[in-house]
Amino acid sequence: MAAPSDEEGAVGPRCHHRPTAMLDVPFLPFCTFLGTLGLLCVAMVGTWCQHWRGGFSLDGSSRTFNWHPVLMVTGLVVLYGAAALVYRIPNTWSGPKLPWKVLHGSLALGSFVLTVLGLAAVFRFHNAQGTPNMYSLHSWMGLATVLLFSCQWAAGFGAFLLPWAPAWLRALYKPIHVFFGSTILMLSVASCASGINEKLFFSLKNGTMQYKLLPAEAVFANTLGLLILIFGVLVVAALARPSWKRPDSDSPDSRQ
């Protein structure tokens, strides 16, 4: 029996690898979709608070509380997710790494600032209304996420941005930093989802607007929660995808 020709041999591998190639989604279109989804989440939480919850103010009323979900979704989920994906951008894979470190740290810091403002809004509302603080599972989970986030940012700053941090420390801490980055994002998503659900239970109580009757506000807010969950899952999936990870290099640029 004659051996297969070079042409026949070439066709075989191409057919074998074609399904894998079809599933290989380019990063930039994926990133564009993810950015659009994140902006949609921010727009929806703002619309929810403006249209159904009365808008925004700083007077200690429920309108002060409305800053809380907007700032938390924007900072702790969307902006944090953007910070996590900085090193997946192909342009970061060559040249000096320091500018991208600064961008990553700055986005995370901006996320942290918005998160702290969101916490301040809910504490101001509770104190003005005489409502106890930190009594629900949502509040415990949210505060734990913020505390873990602050430790993560401080440790990352010390290990990766300070010039005197030893290389062995960076190599030791890097997988820990990556793990807790994904963990904090999923905790953020869980906190936002539980907060949306808690707000609906508290707000939709009268006979015509009960949560169990699924009024328009409940449908809208539940959809928002699902979109936030999808956003978080897609970010974690992007972080875990081997072909999108920044190649390790022993060059001086990578070790700076």
Automatic annotation (TrEMBL):
Main enzyme class: translocase
Location within or outside the cell: Late endosome membrane; Lysosome membrane
Recorded topology in the membrane: Multi-pass membrane protein
EC number per UniProt: 7.2.1.3
GO cellular component: a single term: late endosome membrane
CDD domains found in the cross-reference section: Cyt_b561_CYBASC3
Domain of life the protein comes from: Eukaryota
Transmembrane segments: 27-49, 70-90, 102-125, 137-164, 176-197, 218-240
Domain Cytochrome b561 residues, every copy: 33-240
Reactions that this protein is recorded to catalyse: Fe(3+)(out) + L-ascorbate(in) = monodehydro-L-ascorbate radical(in) + Fe(2+)(out) + H(+)
Keywords on record: Electron transport, Endosome, Glycoprotein, Heme, Iron, Lysosome, Membrane, Metal-binding, Oxidoreductase, Translocase, Transmembrane, Transmembrane helix, Transport
Necessary cofactors: heme b
Alphabetical list of InterPro entries matching this protein: CYB561/CYBRD1-like, Cyt_b561/ferric_Rdtase_TM
Complex and partners: Homodimer.
Protein name per its UniProtKB record: Lysosomal membrane ascorbate-dependent ferrireductase CYB561A3
Gene that produces this protein: Cyb561a3
